[in-house]
Task: structure prediction
Amino acid sequence: MSSPPTSQTAKHPHRFIIVIPVADRPQHIQACLDSLSTLLRRFPYAQPIDVVIADDSADSVNVAANQAVAARSSNPRMRVIHFGPDEQFALSQPLQAMLPGVLGSAAREKFGHKGQGVMRNIAYLKAAQMVNDAPDQHTLIWSLDSDQEFRVNLAEDNGYVIDYFGALDQIFSRTDALLLTGKVVGDPPVSPAVMTRNFLDDVIGFLRQTLANVPACACQHHETAAHRTGEAAYHDMADLFGFTPAVAAYRYPCTLAGEHSESDCFAHFAARLNSFFYGEHPTRISYYQPSDALESVQAARTVYAGNYVFRPAALKYFIPFAALRLRMSGPTLGRLIKAEIGPRFVSANLPMLHKRTVESGGQAEFRPGIDTTQQDIDMSGEFERQFYGDVMLFTIETLTTERRLANADFAETLDTVRAEMLEKYNTRQRDILEKLQMLVALLHNPAHWWNHTPKQAAALAHFNSFVANIQRNFGADSTGHARINAAAPWEKWRADLSEAIARYPADRQAWEQVLCAG
Result:
């Protein structure tokens, strides 16, 4: 990293435009903005922060609720703008025919749930307008998710220990970084579709640990060692990303306060199990490790789409292949950016607190690809988007590494990557079902105390519901696995993926023309 700041840059702090897509999550966006307000009281910044709430809600009630959140959250320190469906449509509709893969092609009456990628890209058009309205300012654009807060999971000052704006202003003033990505702590930033195998290890480990203790004794799940963490420790296929997979189960860190027993902890853990399908991972939570932000800057390859900051010049990097609604769009974008700008793409130790579920009920307000009917949870939609997101990611990684992105035919690479991913997913499915059998045998052993303790009936019902949902989503006849293994769907996906990759250079050119036109 090079290029010390000019005297002008050093004297004038950056202007921040924060972009937050939100879809039917008024509670989450309220918590996010409340945390920003608290942060700015704790660490005042030299100028007001602009916040754009990019509303992708499908329910008009939630559009109104998000608009109300924006209105009551706006204050002299943070100017909150509700970027609603009408304004989005007016801005993007004239460009949809030119950029269907970037901006989508939805009619006005279907202008909700466009997906985070399309919504982010439309919001970047809004950010570009705001930059053009004040071109003399040193602006940074910060892309966030609505289920994050401007703090970390430390007890000190309730987690408000990072001066995000001061740190980012310093990094972008003292380096030539074009785009910087942070991370998240708390709930993992990945889908439950790729966390199930290791979570089953942890659930089995919890039951075995609980068996070693007397139900009425004090809870034994509060050891400090339970707070261990690691890069991608929650991911079943961490090796795909260059990390060493964990070989031992993680212990559950009980969150109950006050005096309580092993039996109480058992019941509380059981009640949390189905929150896993909405993105919680109660045993492999990521924790913040303090360090100096500027000293932590290093070269990056993965964008965390919910926490990255860039100069206006990087507006040219839209969320790729957005209309396909694939997961892993951030890592895919990262591979493309790394291939183009190398060391000017960096990461820093500036994570945000990620909270998948709301405080009441243990469910997400809205989560695409997850269908719930009472206790039955079907995540086949998210599972499919995850699988083909992985196929796209590692295809792009191969093409950029081999400098073949301009090739006219990507079918062979797609076939090769899909076959590799399919083998990994199917092997993992077999592992999951083996572990599920172990869990069921352990859970329903009549000799174990929870099967002859009447007050644990509700807890056992939660466990049984969890087991049924694992079976539904990963069993031999699961819809998600059927979709990724069938030949006919792959023919359609291969054509769509190949077309999107082939169109990417033209999309880049058209997008830059739009930005230059103002």
